[in-house]
Write a structure and sequence with these properties.
Layout (H helix, E strand, L loop, with lengths): L2 H34 L7 H21 L5 H4 L5 H13 L10 H11 L14 H9 L4 E5 L6 H14 L4 E5 L2 H15 L4 E4 L4 E2 L5 E5 H13 L8 E5 L10 H10 L5 E6 L5 H12 L3 E5 L11 E3 L5 E3 L12 H8 L7
Helix pairs in contact: 1-2, 6-7, 9-10
Length: about 350
C-alpha cells in the first residue's frame, strides 16, 4: 500500500468514526428528548423524525466547525483586504492626461483623412499580374509583391482556367485561420461543391477539384504518394506565404513540399517578403529540374498603412511625425505611467 493510499484511507476512517459519533450522540439526544417529554398519540413517528433531523443537522454543523451564518460570510470579500487596496490607491501617484492641443488635434484629423470605402471601379489587372498568368502556363512562377497588390488574383484566375478544363489544384497556406478564410472565399467564387478543405481540424469535401489546406497536409500527401507508389492528385499547387521556407522550426515543410512535388505539377509561389528572390528561384530550378520565372512587383503598398497611438481617454496621436521619426507627443504617456513612484509609509 502506498503512502498516499494510507493517507486517504486513514482520512476516510477518521471521517467515518466522526460520523458514527455524531449520529450516536444525536440518537441519544432524541431518546432523551422523547423520554422526558412524551409526544401526543398518533403523531409520535412524525415528530420523532423531525426532531431527529434537526438534531442531526445541529451535530453535523458542530463537527464541521460552523457557527451561525459564518459559512455564508466566507464568500464575501475580506474587509481588511479592501482597506489595503484603498490605501494603495491613495499612496500611488495620480495619473491624468492632458487634452490635445490644437496642433495635435489637427495632426489626428490629417491621419484619418481619406480613410473609408473607395468608389467602385471596373477591375483592371496590373502588368505583373498579366505577366504571371502568361508564365504559369508553361513554367513555375515566384511572385514577390507587397501585401494588398493582388497576388491571390493570379492564383484565382489560374484555378478558374484549370477547373474549366476538368483539372485539379491545391492551395496551401501556413495558418489554419488563413486556410479557413481562403476556403470561404473560393467557395463563394467557384461554388462549394468544387472546393474542399484539409487541415488538422477540418476535413470536408476531400474529393473536390480544388483543395485548400495547410502546407503540412500537402507535404504529408506527397509522402503518402511516395510510400504507396502513387501520383498526387493535382495539376497545380499554390504555395502562399512562401517565405515560411526561412522559418527555423517549420521551414523544412516548405522545402520538402518543393523538392517532392513532381515536375509535371506547376508551382506558383506567392510572398510579400522574400529576400534574394533570384537566388531562391535558382535553388528551386536545381532541386526540381524546371525553369522558374521571378516576377517582382517593386514599390510601396497599394493600400497605405497608417500607425497611431490611442491613449486611455481615446485621444489619437500619429505614431510618427512629419519627418518620419517617433512622435515626441507620445513620450508623455511613457514617462508618466512608468516613472518610479515612492509610496507613503
Amino acid at each position: 500500500m502506498t503512502r498516499i493510499t494510507q493517507i486517504f484511507r486513514s482520512g476516510s476512517r477518521k471521517e467515518k468514526q466522526l460520523k458514527k459519533k455524531s449520529a450516536s450522540s444525536a440518537l441519544s439526544a432524541v431518546k432523551g428528548a422523547t423520554h422526558t417529554s412524551p409526544l401526543p398519540f398518533g403523531e409520535s413517528r412524525k415528530q420523532k423524525t423531525a426532531v431527529l433531523g434537526k438534531v442531526l443537522i445541529f451535530f453535523m454543523r458542530r463537527n464541521r466547525g460552523d457557527k451561525g451564518d459564518k459559512s455564508r460570510n466566507r464568500s464575501r470579500p475580506d474587509i481588511g483586504r479592501r482597506f489595503k487596496r484603498d490605501r494603495s490607491r491613495e499612496s500611488s501617484a495620480q495619473y491624468s492626461e492632458r487634452s490635445q492641443s490644437p496642433e495635435q488635434a489637427q495632426a489626428a484629423r490629417e491621419l484619418l483623412k481619406g480613410i473609408g470605402v473607395p468608389e467602385s471601379q471596373p477591375f483592371k489587372p496590373d502588368e505583373f499580374q498579366l505577366e504571371a498568368l502568361e508564365a504559369i502556363k508553361h513554367e513555375d512562377v515566384l511572385v514577390t509583391a507587397p501585401t494588398g497588390s493582388g497576388k491571390t488574383w493570379i492564383a484565382s484566375e489560374e484555378i478558374r482556367r484549370l477547373l474549366a478544363q476538368g483539372k485539379r489544384a491545391w492551395y496551401t497556406t501556413p495558418l489554419k485561420a488563413l486556410t479557413n478564410s481562403k476556403y470561404i472565399e473560393f467557395s463563394d467564387r467557384f461554388g462549394g461543391e468544387n472546393v474542399g478543405i484539409l487541415t488538422g481540424d477540418r476535413k470536408e469535401n476531400t474529393e473536390a477539384p480544388l483543395i485548400v489546406g495547410t502546407t503540412e497536409i500537402y507535404r504529408n500527401q506527397l509522402f503518402d504518394a511516395l510510400r504507396n507508389s502513387e501520383q498526387v492528385r493535382t495539376d497545380f499547387v499554390i504555395l502562399d506565404e512562401a517565405h515560411y521556407l526561412a522559418d527555423e522550426e517549420r521551414g523544412h515543410v516548405w522545402e520538402e513540399a518543393i523538392i517532392l512535388t513532381p515536375p509535371r505539377i506547376r508551382l506558383l509561389l506567392l510572398s510579400a517578403t522574400v529576400g534574394r528572390a533570384e537566388e531562391f528561384a535558382r535553388w528551386i530550378e536545381e532541386v526540381r529540374g524546371a525553369r522558374v520565372r521571378v516576377i517582382n512587383r517593386a514599390g510601396s503598398r497599394p493600400v497605405e498603412l497608417r500607425a497611431a497611438y490611442l491613449s486611455s481617454n481615446l485621444q489619437l496621436f500619429p505614431l510618427f511625425d512629419g519627418s518620419g521619426k517617433l512622435n515626441s507627443d507620445i513620450d508623455q504617456f511613457a514617462t508618466r505611467r512608468f516613472a518610479p513612484t515612492r509610496r507613503r509609509r
